Amino acid sequence: MAILAENFFKERKYPFILTLLILLICVTLFLFSFNHTTSNAVAFYSVIQEKPPLNPSQASADYTANPKEQELPPNMTNVRFDWKLCEEPQNVDFIPCLDNFKAIKALKSRRHMEHRERHCPETSLHCLLPLPKGYKVPVPWPKSRDKIWYDNVPYSKLVEYKKDQHWVVKSGKYLVFPGGGTQFKDGVDHYIKFLEKTLPAIKWGKHIRVVLDVGCGVASFGGYLLDKNVITMSFAPKDEHEAQIQFALERGIPATLSVIGTQKLTFPDNGFDLIHCARCRVHWDADGGKPLYELNRILRPGGFFAWSATPVYRDDERDQKVWNAMVDITKAMCWKVVAKGHDSSGIGLVIYQKPTSSSCYEKREGNNPPLCENKDGKNSSWYARLDSCLTPLPVDGMGNLQSWPKPWPQRLTSKPPSLPTDSDAKDKFFKDSKRWSELVSDFYMNGLSIKWSSVRNVMDMNAGYAGSTYDSIMECQSSVTFNKLAGFLQATLKLIPSLLFADLPQLSLIYQFG
């Protein structure tokens, strides 16, 4: 037999069959080894991320909501999960912290919009919210600003409720957004120009970069400001204005669910360049002016509050009572009226400015409202009660009042005014920027197999200084039409806003550089 084998190799008979046999053996060994390794790796990743194994054929398995039973088992290949679709009332729009009906029912009062605030359940969902019937891949940006698939957000209440104000119109398979609004009788484009005409110092996209739109409706104001190189965070409560924030997000416009009730807004101090309210249904004079004190907290020194509502331009008794209350409260806050005007449709507007010096506070009689005492220096707002005091103007480590950020786009890469003056903080900030610039360029843009031009809404969690976000913008200005919440370059104003969640001192820096 040994002789036959020796002769076989010497005479080189059947070379193709021998080669094929060896190849099949190697492939079999490789596949066995690969499947064993990947099954363990996928199971380990799934447990760490608390997600189901990445196996498309596995529709369900035995998942338990008991935390003790979710601990990493010795044999990870046996880890199995069961993610079922949520049942009623956990429908397609269920939001655990806003649809906690048990907690809402137990509220002692709803006078201050307590029922619209967050009431998170003790346990989180362990089921998947279903997609709406007929759901389609969203309309791509920039077309999505003006129309979205009706089946993706199948609500028509606003179509009828606001039909005379042109918020949204149903047209066949689409919901169309003509750019109208309660105060946008000649269209939101005209209204935005009217604002800048009333106060030329606004300089959309250069001086004013970061805007908060209170009671935003379907967020057309913020959507059209993108064309002005302005990033707007729009918010409204989940109320009878059915799915307004869902409309905004489906359109690709940064928006979140929130309300000015008894708790602070989840934004850092001194963050926004301009705050806007167009018939936003907030009683600014309530509780002695607490809602206005909250705006004062998140508005940067020298920032503007643009208010367009009937008390500004109507003379009836009810509106004049509100206007007189606003005059008293804003005077006590040291806000001054810097512009007031009416447009061709009869809509009126007043613009206030927050002080840039503490001298006015010192000259007030009675010190009412008082300045807040923040002895520990914390910049906290999550689940914090509204203050009855004014947040002091921010100062740097030398005691100097903080300056206004540099004009955009220099603002993106310059040191934020709120950054501590010590060299360590400055070095940390620029090292973080450099690190993310390289990481985005080398990995995120080319290493994730993601077509970024088709991505619109991104949540950057634990954002730090938001380096991953704004460096993505810098990277993309020459490659794809791309933007995110931390910054919109003029050439890249068409595709991705990002909701940023971070520790508040760091988030404050994000707003500083826009």
Automatic annotation (TrEMBL):
Stretch list, region Disordered: 404-424
Domain of life: Eukaryota
SUPFAM superfamilies xref list: S-adenosyl-L-methionine-dependent methyltransferases
Family per similarity comment: Belongs to the methyltransferase superfamily.
GO MF, one annotated term: methyltransferase activity
Location in the cell: Endomembrane system; Membrane
Bilayer topology annotation: Single-pass type II membrane protein
Protein name: Methyltransferase
Main localization category: membrane
Keyword Cytoplasm part of the UniProt annotation: no
Alphabetical list of InterPro entries matching this protein: Put_SAM_MeTrfase, SAM-dependent_MTases_sf
Presence of the UniProt keyword Methyltransferase in the record: yes
An example Gene Ontology CC term for this record: endomembrane system
Lineage: Eukaryota, Viridiplantae, Streptophyta, Embryophyta, Tracheophyta
Record keywords, A-Z: Glycoprotein, Membrane, Methyltransferase, Signal-anchor, Transferase, Transmembrane, Transmembrane helix
EC number: 2.1.1.-
GO biological process: methylation
Organism field: Glycine max (Soybean)
